[in-house]
Amino acid sequence: MNEIIEVVEKETSEPFIIGYRFSPEEYENPGIRFEDTLYLVDKLADKDLDYLHISIGNYKQVSRSENYQDKSMIEYINDKINGRVPLISVGDIRTSADAEEALQNSEMVALGRVLLADPHWVSKVLSGREDIVRESVSVEERDALRLNTGVWGFMEAMMPDRIK
Description:
Elements: H1 2-11, E1 19-22, H2 34-44, E2 51-54, H3 73-81, E3 87-89, H4 96-102, E4 108-109, H5 113-117, H6 121-126, H7 149-158
Parallel strand pairs: 1-2, 2-3, 3-4
Helix pairs in contact: 2-3
């Protein structure tokens, strides 16, 4: 990470955003354990980074580790970095209430699956029209939404409840 920061400082005159996206734990053995991630983010938070971005399936998800099940992984990470670097949370955020809850432990929220079903989610939510957000996609709407084969395959595998 230090080398990346040094190259950016040396080679750029315009602002250049540097962030780090990470998965907090792995199921494989051996694999990354949540305790390892807390150590990593503590060290990364002292670097000259613009953000840390957790990669997780659900923003409420708790660790598999018995030592870290009192609150969500995002809460533990937010506590560990303690405002030293902005945190981006993600993970099955479907409603404005989900986004607001995720923002209790992060500075930003990334949206993925919800935008595949409705690319206008943000403008609808911000204009008070959340009631018309599209929650699922029909096969007939696939082309209009420009959902290519790879994305459609992802949706079938990861979001079967959102395909009509």
